[in-house]
Fold this protein.
Amino acid sequence: MNPLLFVGFLCCCCCLLLLTDETGRGSLLACAQEEIFASSFAAAAYLQSIDFPKDKKVYVIGEEGILKELELAGFQYLGGPTDGDKKIELKPGLYMEHDEDVRMILLHVLGVGVACC
């Protein structure tokens, strides 16, 4: 099964939902305005739907919008835009400290979200 990318378009006269796969082929579907929501909201709703533990953390690669949605949904997170300037030098024998409570990495850029656990 190919993952689908959902992109919503809203203008003054109509709403369209573009469904596409990784090949870029897709279909346009008409939809109601209330059926389109932000991908950051969808990411937080996904975590709720899989009963992601509230005592574990999400590492976020993304901007403020996803952080706000995670906070509203009651999830703990690390990362976000403040980590954008961090640099590491990878070399043999490097030990990178990490938070043992991180159980999900959420990549959320340009309105498209991908979750890895």
User: Anything to note?
Assistant: Strands lie at 5-10, 15-20, 26-30, 57-62, 76-79, 102-109, 112-116.
